[in-house]
Design goal:
2 domains; 5-stranded mixed beta sheet; 11 helices
């Protein structure tokens, strides 16, 4: 303003020009909150609503008039002239229209972006909380599926051992049962574990099942030592092992075998649970293997955790005997110095007749 006045031959002091300009911009600063509130109550969206547009046009003109009136008063005080105050307001109103359009749109648009960003963060936080709750509920469902009938079967088997005065085996069985139940109960908030820990849990579970079935239940585990540190969802194997026992094996006098394996290709981990019992086509409830509660929970958890990078495939074994379950996961390794110790402890906990053949 001072530069333009000097170029027009009527120089003014810098402080006077500064006061006039500050009046205009401080006016917009004071009007920022009311304009933002107006934008919140009358949002501009596509397709635009005529009522909202008219409201904002009227509000912008009203804001321009208020600022023009304030500017005219300050100008009349600093630069007294014979021009009437109303004429001065009219001139500043017309001159301020371009600035008003820019300032008003910037305030309404900026406040809308801030509200959208806040809303997006709130929705992301809510989605994360809902996902965590879903995972926890699914994990709880897996634990509840494991405990009731399995517990009753084990207690019946232990009762038989006590009745037959097989004290050593009964004590061993109670120790194994306590370990299995302790693991099932204490992982409420744990979504992942190492593959070595999962194998240890499954081995304990299978040894308890052998209390009922004896040598008829054979177990084979083929998991490279390098993969035992891989991160996997908790209880990722147990539902499939339980299903194999319930539906697939121990239908022959000579018994059956459950084979558990793992292999890695590039950045993918594949877990395999296979039995040599009845296939899906000859089971009385073929859908039970693929649609049981535990397996459905595993599918949902894998989808939540890894999206399309994870998959579960349940089909008849290639040789026509039994069922083969293939679980595909992203390969996530964790450096744990205690992995070898955990594996050694798992093997030591197994009785000789339950040790996995390689």
């Amino acid at each position: 303003m001072a530069t333009l006045a000097r170029a027009g031959g009527t120089p003014i002091s810098l402080w006077r020009a500064l006061v006039v300009e500050v009046t205009r911009w401080y006016g917009w600063a004071l009007l920022m909150r009311p304009v933002a509130r107006l934008g919140e109550h009358y949002p501009v969206a596509w397709p635009p609503r005529v009522r909202h547009l008219v409201t904002h046009v009227v509000a912008a003109l009203a804001a321009n008039f208020v600022i023009a009136a304030a500017g005219a008063l300050v100008t009349a005080w600093l630069f007294p002239t014979s021009r009437s105050l109303l004429d001065s307001v009219g001139v500043q109103f017309l001159v301020g229209i371009p600035v008003t359009a820019i300032a008003y749109v910037a305030i309404v648009g900026g406040s809308a972006l801030l509200r959208a960003r806040t809303l997006l963060r709130a929705r992301e936080l809510e989605a994360a909380e809902l996902t965590a709750e879903l995972r926890t509920s699914q994990l709880a469902a897996l634990r509840m599926q494991l405990q009731p009938h399995f517990l009753f079967n084990c207690l019946n088997a232990i009762t038989a051992l006590v009745r037959d005065a097989e004290t050593t085996r009964a004590v061993r069985a109670l120790s194994l049962l306590g370990g299995v139940l302790r693991t099932a109960i204490t992982v409420a908030d744990v979504q992942e574990a190492t593959l070595g820990d999962e194998l240890e849990f499954v081995q304990r579970y299978l040894e308890l099942e052998r209390l009922r079935f004896g040598e008829r239940l054979r177990v084979s585990i083929d998991v490279p030592q390098s993969l035992r540190a891989a991160r996997v969802p908790t209880f990722v194997l147990q539902p499939f092992v339980e299903n194999a026992i319930k539906h697939g094996v121990l239908r022959e006098r000579t018994g059956n075998e459950i084979a558990i394996g793992a292999r890695a290709t590039h950045d993918t981990l594949q877990l395999v649970v296979r039995d040599d019992g009845r296939g899906l086509s000859v089971r009385p409830d073929p859908g039970g293997t693929d649609a049981g509660t535990g397996i459905a929970n595993v599918r949902a958890r894998l989808e939540r955790l890894f999206g399309p990078a994870a998959a579960v495939r349940v089909a008849d074994a290639p040789d026509g005997r039994g069922v083969c379950v293939e679980i595909t996961l992203p390969l996530l390794l964790t450096a744990r110095a205690s992995t070898s110790n955990e594996t050694a402890r798992a093997r030591a906990d197994l009785s000789p007749h339950t040790a996995a053949s390689r």
